[in-house]
Amino acid sequence: MTDVDHIIAFQGAKGANSDLACHAVFPEMESLPCYSFEDTFAAVHEGKARLAMIPIENSSAGRVADNHHLMPESGLHIIGEHYEKIEHRLLAPKGASLAGLKQVHSHVHALAQCRKFLRAHNIEPVVAADTAGAAQQVAKWNDPEIGAIATSLAGKIYGLDTLNSEISDAEDNTTRFLIMSKDPIDPDPAKTKVMTTFVFRVRSVPAALYKALGGFATNGVNITKLESYITDGSFSVAQFYADIEGHPNARLVRLALEELSFFSKEVKILGVYPANSFRDRGMAAE
Q1: Where does the Prephenate dehydratase domain start and stop, copy by copy (predicted)?
Q2: Could you give the CA distance from residue 83 to residue 178 in angstroms, rounded to a whole number?
Q3: What per-residue confidence (pLDDT) applies to 87?
Q4: How many CB atoms lie within 10 A of CB 46?
C-alpha cells in the first residue's frame, strides 16, 4: 500500500489535465483520481491523500465555480499554486477521421475553450464529467463518429488516435491550480513573494464594499483577484473571493485586513502560500 504522504488527489480520470498538473508539481507522488471535487476534498480530509490539486480558474473559460463554494467549507488550506498550460487534443478511435466526426465529448470548460474549432467543423459538443473520463468512454464506445477532447496522456492511456494536436481557441490557454492540505503553512516573506487568499461577506449597508476594500488602497496592498458569488437562494447574500499580495502578518496587510473586518460580517483566510513564478511573467508583459 502506498504511503498517504505520497498521494495527491485530483478530480477526474487518469490522464486529465489535473492529473498532468499533479505530476508536473509532484513527480514523486502518486495521483489519486476522484469522481467529484467534493470527493477530492474529502480524500484529503479523510486521510486518503496528503494533498489535493484543485483548478480554480482558466484564462479562457474563467473560474471553476464549484470550487469557490466548496473551498471555504472544505477544512483544507491552500499551500501553493500552479499554472498549467492546457493542451486540448482531438482524440478518436483508431481509423476515425476528422471529416467523419459528428460528436465530441469533454468537460464543459474544454468544450468552451474549443468553440471555434468545433463550430468550424460542424461537430456537436457533448458535456462529460471530465476530459479523461470522456476519452475513456469514447474508447469504450469505439464509434468513429464520436471523439473526445482530452490530453495526449489520456489518448495514450485509452488507446485513441490524435486527429488534431491542438484545437484550443487561445494559444496561451492556461489553468491556475491551488494545492491544498489539511495543515496550513507559513512562508517567510523575506525569502519568497507571498500570496494570501480569503473570502468575506460585507455588511448590507451602502458603500460597504467600497469601504471594506479602501484599506487595501490606502495601505498599498495589491488585490490580484476579486470575485463575488451568491451563497443563498434569496440572492441577497454575496460572498467575495480575493487574492492579495503579501503576508497577513506584514504591517500594511494587517491594517488592510483589519479595516476589511470592520466592514464585513466574516473574513476567512483560506491560505497563505508562496507566489508561483508564473506571476512574474505576467508582470514582465505589462
Answers
A1: 7-182
A2: 9
A3: 85
A4: 10
Q: Mean of the pLDDT values across residues 261-279?
A: 94
pLDDT at 284 over 60: no
pLDDT tens digits for range 156-213: 999 999 999 989 998 888 999 999 999 999 999 999 999 999 999 987 778 889 999 9
Does residue 197 have an active-site annotation?
A: no
Residue 276 is given by DSSP the state P
Q: Which of 177, 198, 200, 216 is catalytic?
A: 177
pTM (two decimals): 0.89
CA distance 267 to 264: 7
Lowest mean pLDDT among 224-233, 257-266, 277-286: 277-286
Q: At 15, list the grid cell.
A: 490522464
pLDDT of amino acid 286 = 46
What residue ranges of the chain are covered by domains with CATH 3.30.70.260? 194-285
Per the annotation, the verdict on 224 as an active-site residue is: no
Nearest to residue 173, comparing CAs of 52, 62, 64? Answer: 62
In degrees rounded to 5, what are phi and psi of residue 70?
-80, -40
Burial class (CB in 10 A: 0-12, 13-18, 19+), 7: buried
Average pLDDT across the chain, whole number = 92
Q: Which of 40, 175, 196, 197 is an active site residue?
A: 175
Cell numbers for 206, please give them.
Answer: 451602502
260 within 8 A of 215, measured Cβ to Cβ = yes
Helices within the chain (DSSP H only):
17-25, 37-45, 65-70, 108-112, 115-120, 131-141, 152-158, 208-218, 251-262, 278-285
